[in-house]
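Technical annex, item 7. During the second reporting period the consortium partners agreed on a shared format for inverse folding records so that results from different sites could be compared directly. Each record opens with the tokenized structure and is followed by the designed sequence. A conforming record, contributed by the partner at site C, is shown below for reference.
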């Protein structure tokens, strides 16, 4: 019995060494065969989050909030529930909302889908503006939104329907691509 108790620590060390060699073998074979490369597992899930970006002077320039973000490290993308993107400028603010989004950090884009709405509040020089569509890609750094899908754009009481649009927040320009149909209210005449 004394001999078994003196061998017990050696048996434990031998089992640990065998388990280490087996684990190294499995990991090495998985990486060489490429089995682990096709995985798209999340590394982080964040509920009720907010990400703020600041300009070179330290002033808040944009904000992304959402109910839930699921991040995937293999391609640096994220799936987002109920995203809300806000671009903040003294002269021109713009907001985008949707039911879902897919963010690509490498491309610096957010693909919004499901009841997408873009809004620019009224200013002293311009009426409120909205853009409704089913899908919209936002280039976060350039503050440009683009879609090939049908859109409904309103500017005050004016309504414009088109297929495809580019909306540049920095310049304030909206470019409608095709099939443009406008509904403009009659101008009031004063005598």
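Designed sequence (site C submission):
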């Amino acid at each position: 019995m004394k001999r078994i108790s003196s061998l017990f620590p050696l048996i434990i060390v031998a089992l640990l060494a065998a388990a280490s060699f087996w684990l190294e073998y499995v990991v090495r074979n998985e990486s060489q065969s490429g089995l682990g490369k096709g995985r798209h597992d999340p590394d982080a899930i964040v509920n009720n989050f907010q990400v703020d970006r600041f300009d070179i002077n330290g002033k808040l320039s944009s904000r992304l909030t959402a109910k839930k973000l699921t991040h995937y490290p293999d391609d640096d993308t994220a799936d987002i529930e109920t995203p809300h993107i806000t671009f903040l400028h003294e002269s021109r603010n713009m907001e985008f909302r949707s039911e879902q989004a897919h963010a690509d950090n490498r491309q610096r884009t957010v693909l919004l889908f499901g009841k997408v709405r873009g809004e620019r509040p009224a200013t002293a020089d311009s009426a409120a503006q909205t853009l409704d569509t089913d899908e919209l890609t936002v280039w976060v750094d350039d503050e440009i939104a683009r879609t090939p899908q049908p859109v409904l754009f309103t500017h005050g009481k004016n309504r414009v329907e088109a297929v495809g649009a580019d909306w540049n927040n920095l310049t304030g320009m909206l470019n409608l691509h095709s099939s443009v149909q406008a509904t403009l209210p009659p101008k009031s005449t004063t005598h």
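Residues 11 and 17 are 10 Å apart (CA to CA). The radius of gyration is 27 Å. All partners now use this format for quarterly exchanges.
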